[in-house]
């Protein structure tokens, strides 16, 4: 099967050739014909399966064909709602790539930046609008956006939308778009709340599920390191200074934890930046671009800020802290091993995270191989005690026989930057991420 077999119009075929696309992914192969027929669709697909093209390509074709028939001026005919700024921008880039020869226009609206340039684009008229929920509703209320003539509605990353507290915003959006429309619904997982939402907004939908919800790509080499909490920084630096790690996306549970990891890496000569909800839009995009261009080796992120990150040939994903929601593990490691490339997923597990590990292995249906031969192996299944001095600056203590003496200055500092998260750090940053991501 090639894209030539999907009955795509010449302008899109030409754009796909420019992009180097020849063979559609499974979700593209199955979803594109369904969407072109005008049918509602539920797509259950994990990160990295090519689902953006699965809806962007047929939307561009449908709107291009309608424009030829009607010869009408630009108006918002397709609305794509997605939870984060980064994902909205990437979807916009996809529409630019696939639609470069169609003459269709699009724009992206999201919070965290001035709305001035966004409203200018809207005043000029657009065919396709990609938006995060908060800014979309703000601009609707200000009369910059009229959704009464929408033909196609896409709800992307529905499960993350629910996690981030956008369910009420989504319902408000649905209430103001036409009831007669084509609806495309995409979600990596289908918990009961998402199934209920889908059933309320779709009409006789086709269902495409190309990957089991709990599976992890076979091409991803997973490994597990048991390590005391106080030694995680040392283990991370030990791995990042090895020859095999060319780029690493590192996950922490909190924004505070992400910033702390970056400070430790920078002090020890590993170029790193953090992305999370407290960073400005320009800072987040700048860090992402520098990571993609290999100007920095490590990008440290919280789950919500990282949703939608698409990086070619990412060599490693490192779970500095295991997620407390097992499905999140699948989403995280799915950012490596894309497009046929090999990928490594490394997870650290301290004594307090053993329960999280058990849930993850139950979900994926197998045990993650354990690496025992490393200098920071956990000394005890009990929670780590006070952080031991020694090792790299602010890092932790290697096991017996591999310790170096710390300097008097280091002992006086007490390795403040190497300790675990402070008591004041929030256990879950979803609330603040939601406020800063889209408003």
UniProtKB/TrEMBL annotation:
Chain ranges of the Helicase ATP-binding domain: 32-208
Biased composition, class Low complexity, residue ranges: 377-390
EC number of this enzyme: 3.6.4.13
Gene3D superfamilies (alphabetical): P-loop containing nucleotide triphosphate hydrolases
GO terms under cellular component: cytosol
UniProt feature coiled coil, ranges: none
Motif (Q motif): 1-29
A single GO BP: response to temperature stimulus
Enzyme's top EC category: hydrolase
Comp. bias regions, Basic and acidic residues: 399-439
Domain DEAD-box RNA helicase Q positions: 1-29
Keyword Membrane found: no
Substrates-to-products reaction catalysed: ATP + H2O = ADP + phosphate + H(+)
Key words, A-Z: ATP-binding, Cytoplasm, Helicase, Hydrolase, Nucleotide-binding
Name of protein: DEAD-box ATP-dependent RNA helicase RhpA
Native source species: Williamwhitmania taraxaci
